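Practice problem: YcgN family cysteine cluster protein
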Amino acid sequence: MSLEIRPEFWKNHQLSELIQAEWEALCDGCGLCCLVKLEDDESHEIAYTKVSCKLLDCKTAQCSDYPNRLNYVPDCIQLSPEKLAQIHWLPSSCAYRRVNEGKNLPSWHYLITGSKM
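Answer key — structure tokens:
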């Protein structure tokens, strides 16, 4: 049974209340989760490198084998509502971070515009 995502679910529900399809729909596909990140020991600033996970398709910024990614990349980032508070490196434009902080999605997000283009 396939469940439909609810209209404006990110405004009306806590992240912990989302069904899997809604959770996945929040991702804008920026690919930053799939890049190696470096954290400065003193300032704690995050630098995104140009080194990516072996499964990242750099042309589409999508995982080339998302359903099986943990079989190939055991330390793949698995975002969840419970882990968001501990993952401080998400960019300020990240829909997961924004919704978790009580902010709206960015105006360019495809759930707002209706287009992934």
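Discussion: The chain has a mean pLDDT of 91. Students who identified this feature from the tokens alone can consider the problem solved.
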